[in-house]
Design brief:
alpha/beta; about 15% strand; formyl-coa transferase, domain 3; three-stranded antiparallel β-sheet; Rossmann fold
Length: about 400
């Protein structure tokens, strides 16, 4: 990439846009990385001590994989916003930008002189996106909203796992990832609106809001319909049976979906248990849901008689949705993810090369690209400040 990104933009779909990221942890860096993957010039403004993720193991020769995983395709500028020089330099950057993304607690940037209203005076076309745990309004707006806190507050932890167990944290950082993705598409919507109005706007992203939104397909629908929190069903679905994991005879687990009555009938035929498909308790999905445990008492010992791969092949042969329950290493080694290029190597100036997750959305005309690894702390400070002083 040219030292002057403004004069020679990337050919990607977002190559004409400059994004200033004032981000720590996961949500804001994920948002700006999604924009960077499709060509945006993302300038990550860090304090002198750097993003906290730089300190998190595992390390590879001093480089944090946490940090590298969400900061590729960016340039790093170190500015101390407690100093006049740092604030002046940030103001100059904002004047050249299309987007600012930040995930400080509400009020922090206002105290530093960079609220949306203050930034809009510098740059009326700026799209200013704030990501926080609880949003910019409401009685808890100033409280920290880290992943674990939000998962607990949103009801995720008592919707997952088995009944009568301790609260169950969902392993993926759903609030941070969903928050970053929601912010990215909201920013794109605001940029489209700017094409008509010429003006930017403020975008308020709450990790709590996006976490609640992520639950709508299953548990939220149950609550909306009944007014009661759904029971915890482990890997099972509250209103579709069977749709869950089963342990096979070799100790491995597999997932089976026979939720429609046609699929259930075909699954019973494949298992040689046609009587189950006409049993009044199990013939319909409503019946299977009402008599879930009675059905599981039949299926679980049956599935324990053969290895998982046998059942997978049997059900796939019958057109029944079925698949293995992989650990992460098995998933990443699968032929499907290899074909989708979801694990790739990219050059790294200090490590030689580094593995990184591929770009999930596949665009045919303007695909995302991996152009640079996560930057060293302040690696591009001189370069970027020289550019903005020239008006690039």
């Amino acid at each position: 990439m040219s030292a002057s990104v403004r004069s020679q933009p990337c050919a990607g779909a977002l190559g004409a846009f400059r994004v200033i990221e004032l981000g720590m942890y996961g949500s804001a860096p994920i948002c700006s990385m999604l924009l960077a993957d499709f060509g945006a010039d993302v300038i990550k403004v860090e304090p002198p001590e750097g993003d906290f993720y730089r300190q998190l193991p595992p390390f590879e020769r001093g480089e944090s994989h946490y940090f590298m995983s969400v900061n590729r395709n960016k340039r790093s500028v170190v500015l101390d916003l407690k100093t006049d020089f740092g604030r002046e330099a940030l103001g100059t950057l904002i004047a050249t930008a299309d987007v600012l993304v930040e995930n400080f607690r509400p009020g922090v940037l206002t105290r530093l002189g960079f609220s949306y209203e203050q930034c809009a005076k510098i740059n009326p076309g700026l799209v200013y996106c704030s990501i926080s745990g609880f949003g910019q309004t409401g009685p808890q707006r100033e409280e920290p909203g880290l992943d674990l806190i939000v998962q607990g507050y949103a009801g995720m932890m008592l919707s997952s796992g088995e009944e009568n167990q301790a609260p169950f944290k969902i392993a993926p950082a759903v609030p941070d990832v969903m928050g970053g993705q929601s912010a990215a598409y909201a920013i794109l919507a605001a940029l489209l609106a700017r094409e008509r109005s010429g003006l930017g706007q403020f975008v308020d992203i709450s990790l709590l809001d996006t976490s609640i939104f992520s639950m709508q397909l299953v548990y939220l629908a149950q609550w909306l319909g009944s007014g009661e929190s759904p029971a915890r069903n482990g890997s099972g679905h509250p209103s579709m049976v069977p749709m869950q994991s089963f342990r096979a005879g070799d100790g491995r687990w597999f997932n089976l979906v026979g939720n429609t009555d046609r699929m259930w009938s075909d699954a019973c035929k494949a298992m040689g248990c046609e009587d189950l498909s006409v049993d009044p308790r199990f013939a319909t999905n409503a019946g299977r849901t009402a008599n879930r445990q009675q059905l599981l008492d039949i299926l679980e010992p049956l599935f324990a008689t053969r290895p998982a791969q046998d059942w997978i092949e049997l059900f796939k042969g019958a057109g029944i949705p079925c698949g293995p329950v992989n650990d992460l290493a098995q998933a990443m080694a699968s032929p499907q993810l290899k074909a989708r290029q979801m694990l790739v190597d990219m050059p790294h100036p200090r490590l030689g090369h580094v593995k990184t997750i591929g770009i999930a959305p596949k665009l045919t005309a303007t695909p995302g690209t991996l152009r640079r690894p996560a930057p060293g702390l302040g690696e591009h400070t001189e370069e970027v400040l020289r550019e903005v002083s020239r008006g690039d």
